[in-house]
Amino acid sequence: MSIALYHQAGPDKSSFDQVLNLAASFCTDLRLDAIPVSNAFYSLYQWALVREVDLYIRRIGHTNAPVELLLAFDEIKRDEVVGFLLYLPVMRLSDACGVCYMAVKVSHQRRGIGKSLLASMLDRYPHAELTCSISNVGFYETMGFSVVGTHSSQVAMCTREQPTKGEILLIDARSILGSPEARQRQMELEQRWGKKEMRYAIKQFERHVSKLVLQAEEFVKARLER
Fold first, then answer.
1. Could you identify which of 61, 156, 171, 175 might form a hypothetical disulfide with 149, taking C-beta atoms 3.0 to 4.6 angstroms apart as the criterion?
2. Could you give the domains of the chain?
3. Contact assessment for residue 127 and residue 159, using Cβ atoms and an 8 Å cutoff
4. Residue 32: is it exposed, middle or buried by C-beta count within 10 angstroms (0-12/13-18/19+)?
5. What's CA 117's distance to the chain center, in Å?
6. What Å distances lie between residue 146 and 143, 153, 204, CA to CA?
7. What does pTM read for this prediction?
8. What is the rounded average pLDDT for all residues in the chain?
9. Reduced to 3 states, what is the DSSP secondary structure of residue 127?
């Protein structure tokens, strides 16, 4: 396995497309709301996630809104992307960053690829923060992250006692879901499933997120009270 850093220019088209495909396949894991495949809105939220990752990658090299990308390549098929880590350096702080997305191909998991990607990032930015599902807390703790709170339905973690006070320039995911293309896709889903089914999907999704938020809050409270 080899790891390549992209911080001045983005990857070639083949690698770019592979990252987007990898993000799409890990939609539930990468989204804050962890939308399940069974929900009727899944394809819309999957599209929105891929669009967001696409926009971040296209920002690489822009000093006014920095983005960095680490890609792990297969040791035999050297042009095959088997994992990626996308993070945002904190403005005006040279040692801090915030993790946006990380994924490793199922076929290449449990080989230390995720740890290698994180280690490469931490060599550049030792003060790092991220959010993750409860199930991934243990993994990030082995990389030096500690639980510091919650963010929406996920656990907030940091390599220092407190998150950075610097500015991280995030893309507003709500603007993507509010775009004309997103509305068109939603209309197509309504035509396919019917408005009644889509209303049910919204309520189902809201209950799902509320449950995750409560679980994260209870988990963090218990962890910080230790």
1. 156
2. 2-224 (3.40.630.30)
3. yes
4. middle
5. 14
6. 9, 17, 32
7. 0.95
8. 96
9. strand
- Would you say how long the chain is, in residues? 226
Tokens 């610097």, located at residue: 166
How far apart CA 44 and CA 128 sit, in angstroms, is 30
pLDDT digit string (tens) for 30-79?
Answer: 999 999 999 999 999 999 999 999 999 999 999 899 999 999 999 999 99
Nearest-10 Cα torsion for 150, 34, 200, 175:
80
Residue with tokens 């296209």: 58
Q: Tokens 């889509």 identify what position?
A: 198
Reading the block at residue 115, the tokens are: 């740890």
Output the CA angle 205-163-56, nearest 5 degrees.
60
DSSP 33-83: T---TTSTTHHHHHHHHHHHHHHHHHTTT-TTS--EEEEEE-SSSTT-EEE
Percentage with pLDDT > 90 across the chain: 92
Q: How many CB atoms lie within 10 A of CB 131?
A: 20
